[in-house]
User: Fold this.
Amino acid sequence: MLRPVWAFPLVAALIALWFSVLLLRAYLDRRRPAELLWALALLMYAGASIALLLGVLDGWSPAEYRVYWLFGAVLNVPYLAMGELYLLVRDRRVRTVVLVLLLFATAFAVARVRTATLDAAALGVDLPRGAHVWADDPVALDLARFYAFPAYFFLLGGTLWSAWRMRRHPELRDRFLGTLAIAIGATIVAAGSAFAATGNAVGFSLTLTAGIAVMFWGFLRAARPSGAPERPDPAAVRFPP
Assistant:
């Protein structure tokens, strides 16, 4: 009998795809790099969710798990954090250096996950645990820790700091609430890693769906026009020339 667990990653994938399309449209209208980076991150969430959907529907293939691991565990949070950096840091030199480092890190992660030694016997469950799948290749396992964890803490800290700086600006209320929602959504997704670590596909899919939905609402709220004249961003960091 087909269990309904497949519905959760399907919903997560649809929300992430819809979200990414809206962000891409916003980027084409305003040419803000943060929106492009967030759109790429949400496309990664969608790709990981589709891989999870296929995995729970008819069993995991090695290719599906590589896609799930690369986009769901390693790369998406760094791209969300890079978008946050574009909002917080106005110095173009800093942003360019970090972006180049991110692109090199992305190329390394893609090559490493694509060629990593994978234990196919560990794929016979709804949600295979990374520690089991990459038991013979700890580098692939450690990529999730070295990429996603620091990026998450930067994303969370930067978003909360930005929201704190905007709290006394009534004209930025929508952006204040939106950035708080983004931080909460990212935390919900991060909390889902506890389910992933135990192989709980339902719990992981629910937290992934809920986290993406909360971030979605946050970005929509933050993108509302304030109706106030353009003014310096109180949450931005500027470095001396």
Q: What stands out?
A: The two ends are 65 Å apart (CA to CA). Confidence is low (pLDDT under 50) at residues 228-232, 234-241.
